[in-house]
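Budget justification aside, the reviewers requested a transparent look at the raw inputs and outputs of the sequence design task funded under Objective 1. We therefore reproduce one unedited record. The lines immediately below are the structure tokens for a 233-residue chain.
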């Protein structure tokens, strides 16, 4: 399993090692010990979700109040999605930045995002099936929405028809949310994550009893780097 930090602090891309033979493929899509070493603290999940989306469906951008926030570990088990992480933490050096990772049933990557980050995705295929682990159970009073087509964000969603829920279609933009004072602060998010590390002081790159996890930093990439050369044509 390889863990690569994204350009937004608190977000990682996870690439599993796949073992294939004539019967099919086996992989570990989540490892408690390795991911804990990668992100710096053990993870505790309170809920698992699954969604099935038609091509062109956009879900998000969603985030929750901090504390406690809601960390997520996301993967696509069927089809493909463009998974997007947005930094909505006021005071963050990358506030307003987004990064996209293609999740599909070929490479079988996953994305982990810490508490306070915004998350959404666009289905690139029909029946795109996304499953994700959440650090807390769903709390509708703490969940917030950010319009995924906010021009201030400028997320480069795939071309073609798009389908949003009524809630996401009517969500405010980043400027409105900031003016309303409902965005999480970078300081609050850092303090919350540090509280997790103080209880279980893991550090990236350390070796556990079950093996080591290579941790790499983000390479230079464009915001549309999820497009492979054949898909750019």
């Amino acid at each position: 399993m390889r863990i690569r930090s994204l350009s937004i602090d608190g977000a990682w891309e996870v690439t599993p090692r796949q073992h294939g033979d004539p019967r099919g493929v086996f992989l570990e899509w989540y490892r408690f010990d390795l991911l804990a070493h990668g992100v710096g603290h053990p993870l505790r999940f309170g809920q698992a979700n699954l969604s099935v989306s038609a091509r062109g469906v956009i879900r998000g951008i969603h985030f929750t109040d901090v504390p406690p926030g809601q960390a997520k570990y996301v993967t696509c088990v069927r089809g493909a999605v463009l998974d997007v992480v947005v930094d909505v933490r006021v005071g963050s050096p990358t506030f307003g930045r987004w990064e996209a990772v293609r999740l599909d049933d070929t490479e079988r990557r996953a994305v982990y995002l810490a508490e306070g980050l915004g998350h959404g995705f666009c289905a690139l295929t029909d029946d795109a099936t996304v499953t994700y682990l959440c650090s807390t159970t769903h709390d509708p009073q703490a969940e917030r929405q950010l319009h995924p087509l906010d021009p201030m964000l400028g997320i480069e969603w795939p071309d073609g028809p798009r389908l949003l829920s009524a809630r996401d279609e009517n969500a405010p933009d980043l400027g409105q949310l900031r003016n309303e004072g409902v965005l999480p602060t970078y300081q609050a998010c850092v303090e919350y994550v540090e509280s997790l590390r103080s209880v279980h002081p893991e550090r990236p790159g350390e070796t556990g009893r079950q093996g080591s996890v290579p941790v790499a930093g983000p390479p230079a990439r464009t915001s549309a780097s999820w497009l492979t050369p054949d898909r750019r044509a």
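The two ends are 31 Å apart (CA to CA). The CA atoms of residues 88 and 209 lie 36 Å apart. Computational costs for records of this kind are itemized in the attached budget.
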